[in-house]
């Protein structure tokens, strides 16, 4: 499936975030790539230049790399003329897997960036497609299980964090195989990291009221936190929430039309008058302007402490609070699932189990002995 027109091969440069230049070949018209089963224009060479050479050595290095790249370009053009496309196989093996990871992480949720950082540390910043073997991936699996919360002296990360990181990496391997970059489906030979039943940390209604009555040094943090208790939004969605996402609904109340950052789910969620009040005066742009993830750490802990709440709770625990309060008040699981933007009702079931445990504890609290 080749074009009758002779393909022109042009050497081009692409600037990376690091400031270096990645060299690639641009085929025009595109050539048929049998691995991805479509026409392709680019072939990255795995060769890099100093974006702004600082001395004679770096300038000479750049020139040597350019000479090498021009030689590869000439060979590719000759191979295309002779209809010899074996270079596609060799190119894929030597493609930069780490750079491929970076590209795939763009536009994904935060966990992809975290796993990318850990993988880059694991491979010391260099990994080619041909390096991605079963043994290599299993070594990364062991590396994940040894990760510490604080690199030097912290405790190991939770089992579920490790499972989540590993699951994300395996999703990348699946994409790479599907797109033809990996010749073998490595995933078929890798063991999963089993998830543990998560412990749901949440606030009781009286604790939420206590928190609402306690001053917070970061005013926007207090508003965003109480908003989370009343809506169940993740911090990633609260940080991205804009006034144009909040509008009147047909029933006369207000609603939020959002696309969740984590699951990319489109959702229309009702907004109570009380939750809307925590958004502040209507304006344009971000609703919780000035809020950052840093506020949800130490400032959040300090505020909890000042409110007399001794539970170990993260900002995400406010999302659990919302779901648990809904179930406690008799809201059916299906509705709670929709309010939480869960893809599967089974994910929501954990809140019903929490409430059942609370009912059991309440029943056992009454004794005639």
Break the fold down into its secondary structure elements and pairings.
Blueprint lengths: L7 E8 L5 E13 L4 E12 L6 H26 L5 H7 L3 H9 L4 H13 L11 H12 L13 H20 L26 H8 L6 H13 L3 H6 L5 E3 L5 E6 L6 E6 L1 H5 L20 H9 L10 H12 L4 H7 L5 H20 L5
Antiparallel strand pairs: 1-2, 2-3, 4-5, 5-6
Descriptive key words:
3-stranded antiparallel β-sheet, alpha+beta, 369 residues
Describe this structure in words.
- Helices cover 45% and strands 13% of the residues.
- It is elongated and about 90 Å long.
- The protein has a 3-stranded antiparallel sheet, covered by helices on one side. Strands 4-5-6 form a 3-stranded antiparallel sheet.
- The mean pLDDT is 86.
- The protein contains 14 helices and 6 strands.
- The chain has helices at 56-81, 87-93, 97-105, 110-122, 134-145, 159-178, 205-212, 219-231, 235-240, 273-277, 298-306, 317-328, 333-339, 345-364, and strands spanning 8-15, 21-33, 38-49, 246-248, 254-259, 266-271.
- With 369 residues, it is of the alpha+beta class.
Q: What is the strand arrangement across the widest sheet?
A: 1-2-3
Assembly context of the chains: single chain
Beta-strand share of residues: 5-15%
User: Helical content, roughly?
Assistant: 40-55%
Inertia-based shape: elongated
- Poorly predicted regions are none
Quote the average pLDDT.
Answer: 86
Q: Whole-Å distance between the termini? A: 86 Å
Class computed from helices, strands and strand pairing: alpha+beta
